[in-house]
């Protein structure tokens, strides 16, 4: 007996409209598509998922009081260089980063995760430069 291991992986392009979607629920589904868990030949140690294009990232929704209470932190690398931003400010200034950080938190923290996060393309508005890839509109539940 030998274990089946897919040799040739086919990566499609998927278009997701984020308008009116909740951030966390949308991020879990995007992370699943990036990993390839929706495909029958899913292999955990291979990048067999699809490329994901997310449009209308500025129209995502936070539930509850997360716009005022959720804090994003980053460190500049200098002494006392901790910078904090609320979710409302981040959504107003850089709406793409909200979804990118949410999806990154759900991917593995290794070489595979770094390869998968590069397959995520997030845009604040309706337009995107990936029309040549002929992305398939995917309705995420």
Could you please describe the fold and organization of this structure?
With about 140 residues, the chain is α/β, with parallel strands linked by helices. It has a domain of about 90 residues: Ribosomal Protein L13p, Chain: A (Alpha-Beta Complex). The protein contains 5 helices and 6 strands. Strand 1, helix 1 and strand 2 form a beta-alpha-beta unit. Helix 1 packs across helix 4 and helix 3 crosses helix 4. The mean pLDDT is about 95.
In brief:
The chain is of the alpha/beta class. It has five helices and six strands. The chain has a domain at 13-62 and 99-137: Ribosomal Protein L13p, Chain: A (Alpha-Beta Complex), CATH 3.90.1180.
Tell me the series of helices and strands, N- to C-terminal: EHEHEEHHHEE
Question: Which structural class should the secondary elements be placed in?
Answer: alpha/beta
Average pLDDT reading: 95
Radius of gyration, rounded?
Answer: 17 Å
Helix content class: 25-40%
Please state the second-level CATH architecture of the domain at 13-62 and 99-137.
Answer: Alpha-Beta Complex
Low-confidence stretches: none
- Count of distinct strands: 6
How far is it from the N-terminal to the C-terminal residue, by CA? Answer: 38 Å
Major pleated sheet: 4 strands, parallel
CATH class of the domain at 13-62 and 99-137: Alpha Beta
Measured by DSSP, the beta-strand proportion falls in 15-25%
Could you say which overall geometry the principal axes of the C-alpha atoms support?
globular
CATH fold topology of the domain at 13-62 and 99-137: Ribosomal Protein L13p, Chain: A
| SS element count, helices | 5
